[in-house]
């Protein structure tokens, strides 16, 4: 590739905002070792002709940095995973041979340069566009202000400078039609949030206006209520017209193709959300697994029953479990309420709670959720009649909701007024009788979604106001309440948090990661975690002659399975300030070489007493810390035969060393790497042939 071609390609990547190393996905190599041998051979050739090559390159107008880039083009047909293995392996080669600059450093450096260029370019464009709009379009800005106030549609000649100055416009799906002209490709990207609540009829006008569409939503939360409740009869009449028009358009297609297309037309039913529609035709799809709103205990029901324990909870609980989960069972008047599906005693109790929070000078937000609309209306009227209602609205941002209207809302404290009294069984009409058979019930999916959405709104605390014990409430509602109540009867894991090092920001996070792993959840009753364990003192008690300093580890995890001996593992998070040598070359490929010597020596000493280490740092946990820990636990406690990345890298490095020392070589016939003794042939001058004994034996049989 010439200098000009390389420069143009680089500019193209920058303009398209692409990252070179994120585009490498296809055409994986069939043999990693062949690639290694070729690259190593090229490196040796470059070293031999270094002076002549540099002269030639300079004569062509190519500087040394571009030469380094050219050496990396060999990776262009490999997968990203293979690149990481190869780069790490070559890093070892350069490190041993005291190379000045390695491919790993080039990888990180070039990627960083490209990212910084993109950020700088984006910042300059945004700043310049705002300044230009202010200086050159003052009259247009005034006209736009009048249009917004009058809620009129923006003319196209005013929309273009507006979008150039403010490239990100946030509008409601209904406001889009009021303000933005209906014209194709007005925007580069259209993003639709809460897509499960947007019908295809509402979304298509937005999609037409964009060149690309990004849809965000959760099929396990509410669909569009209005489209769901639309008249089935009217919908069928209108949708039949769509079917007929579609069939006329495809009448010239082959019969087999027509049948397939006629099935796809069902996706255009107005009762489908745009999320359901787009799931059939995505170019890219991913799940967002990090949960930031509430503590593990607050989201655990939804995580277990709706998301298969796939959510990674990021919020660390530093308060008592009794402050997070509360049950208030009151003695309600057994007489029938004047208004159906209401409970005035629960309302009085909630009013007292709001007054108590006011007296405490509580600074957080408060929400109230109830299953019944009548209870919501009565709660609202009683609170508005209170002398402190303005205080509640202003200080607590108080909102009274039903399970159907709370999606998208969140509050620090959520009170649940469940209404049902002894002798009543009204909650079965709101929630499923049994969650795992919800699909068999009438409106079962909607009932299940109420559980998922309603019981995941709290950020700090949920407080159930009940008129009977959770065990007395029937069906799935009772099981949910008992699920939360059972948490209060178990050990409070926040006590472990209190024992961590208060000076470390990462120890509480590591503890939470451990408690969220599949290994911990499956073996919770057989695991003991000891924070800040004095391992040095403990080993000296076992061996008074042990040469080990007084040393506390972050966590000692003890795994005692019934019928098996207790096994232990040490879990340490390595911060850069104390555990690594200072170097500009440290990155995800090289960090193992920059541990301070005292750390390595201490680890080897402790491991010699049978305590394996699991070391964490920002490189190994950057993608999925839970998955990484699960792999390490599986390997440490030999639960599965899973190998992690380090094992693969060690295997590749060992193979390379054997190739370099001529202990093994590749057979020219079968292509396998075999021990050198497999190539021994006393009849040859060099004593070793190109093909292994096995392949030679096959050739001998054929010749006979």
TrEMBL record:
Family: Belongs to the DNA2/NAM7 helicase family.
GO molecular function: 5'-3' DNA helicase activity; ATP binding; hydrolase activity
Domain DNA2/NAM7 helicase helicase residues, every copy: 184-222
Leader sequence residues: none
Domain DNA2/NAM7 helicase-like C-terminal residues, every copy: 278-463
Name of the protein: DNA helicase
Recorded superkingdom: Bacteria
Keywords: ATP-binding, Helicase, Hydrolase, Nucleotide-binding
Pfam families xref list: AAA_11, AAA_12
């Amino acid at each position: 590739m010439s200098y000009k071609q390389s420069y143009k390609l680089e500019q193209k990547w920058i303009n398209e905002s692409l990252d070179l190393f994120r585009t490498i996905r296809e055409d994986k190599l069939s043999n990693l070792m062949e690639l290694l041998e070729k690259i190593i051979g090229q490196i040796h050739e470059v070293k031999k002709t270094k002076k002549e090559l540099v002269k030639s390159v300079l004569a062509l107008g190519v500087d040394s940095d571009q030469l380094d880039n050219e050496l990396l083009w060999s990776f262009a047909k490999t997968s990203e995973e293979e690149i990481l293995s190869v780069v790490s392996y070559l890093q070892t080669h350069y490190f041993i041979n005291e190379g000045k600059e390695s491919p790993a450093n080039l990888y990180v450096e070039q990627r960083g340069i490209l990212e910084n260029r993109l950020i700088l370019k984006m910042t300059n464009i945004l700043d310049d566009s705002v300044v230009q709009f202010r200086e050159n379009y003052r009259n247009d800005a005034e006209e736009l202000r009048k249009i917004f106030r009058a809620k009129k549609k923006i003319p196209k000649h005013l929309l273009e400078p507006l979008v150039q100055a403010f490239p990100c416009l946030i509008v409601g799906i209904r406001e889009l039609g009021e303000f933005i002209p209906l014209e194709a490709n007005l925007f580069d990207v259209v993003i639709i949030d809460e897509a499960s609540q947007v019908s295809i009829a509402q979304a298509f006008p937005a999609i037409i206006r964009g060149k690309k569409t990004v849809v965000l939503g959760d099929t396990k939360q509410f669909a569009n209520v209005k489209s769901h409740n639309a008249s089935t009869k009217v919908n069928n009449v209108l949708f039949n017209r769509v079917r007929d028009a579609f069939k006329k358009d495809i009448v010239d297609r082959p019969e087999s193709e027509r049948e397939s297309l006629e099935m796809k037309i069902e996706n255009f039913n107005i009762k489908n959300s745009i999320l359901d529609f787009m799931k059939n035709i995505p170019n890219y799809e991913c799940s967002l697994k990090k949960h930031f709103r509430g503590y593990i205990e607050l989201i655990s029901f939804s995580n277990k029953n709706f998301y298969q324990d796939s959510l990674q909870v990021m919020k660390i609980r530093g308060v008592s479990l009794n402050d997070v989960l509360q049950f208030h069972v009151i003695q309600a008047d057994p007489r029938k309420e004047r208004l159906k599906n209401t409970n005035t005693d629960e309302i009085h109790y909630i009013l007292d709670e709001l007054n108590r929070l006011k007296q405490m000078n509580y600074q957080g937000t408060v929400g109230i959720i109830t299953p019944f609309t009548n209870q919501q209306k009565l709660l609202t009227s009683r609170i508005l009649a209170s002398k402190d209602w303005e205080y509640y609205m202003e200080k607590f941002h108080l909102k009274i909701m039903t399970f159907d209207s709370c999606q998208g809302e969140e509050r620090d404290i959520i009170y649940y007024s469940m209404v049902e009294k002894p002798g009543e069984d009204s909650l079965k009409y709101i929630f499923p009788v049994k969650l795992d058979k919800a699909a068999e019930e009438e409106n079962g999916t909607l009932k299940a979604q109420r559980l998922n959405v309603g019981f995941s709104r709290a950020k700090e605390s949920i407080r159930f106001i009940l008129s009977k014990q959770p065990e007395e409430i029937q069906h799935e509602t009772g099981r949910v309440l008992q699920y939360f109540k059972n948490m209060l009867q178990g050990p409070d894991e926040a006590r472990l948090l209190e024992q961590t090092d208060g000076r470390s920001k990462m120890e509480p996070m590591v503890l939470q990661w451990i408690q969220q792993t599949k290994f911990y959840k499956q073996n919770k009753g057989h695991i003991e975690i000891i924070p800040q364990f004095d391992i040095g003192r403990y080993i000296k008690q076992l061996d008074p002659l042990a040469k080990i300093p007084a040393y506390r580890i972050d966590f000692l995890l003890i795994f005692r399975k019934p019928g098996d001996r207790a096994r232990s593992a040490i879990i340490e998070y390595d911060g850069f300030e104390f555990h690594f040598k200072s170097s500009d070359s440290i990155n995800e490929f090289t960090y193992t070489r920059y541990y301070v010597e005292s750390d390595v020596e201490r680890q080897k000493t402790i491991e010699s007493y049978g305590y394996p280490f699991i070391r964490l740092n920002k490189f190994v946990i950057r993608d999925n810390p839970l998955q990484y820990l699960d792999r390490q636990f599986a390997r440490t406690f030999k639960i599965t035969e899973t190998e992690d990345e380090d094992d693969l890298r060690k295997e590749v490095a060992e193979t390379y060393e054997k190739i370099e020392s001529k202990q093994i070589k590749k057979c020219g016939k079968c292509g396998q790497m075999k021990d050198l003794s497999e190539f021994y042939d006393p009849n040859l001058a060099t004593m070793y042939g190109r093909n292994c004994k096995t392949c030679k034996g096959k050739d001998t049989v054929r010749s006979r």
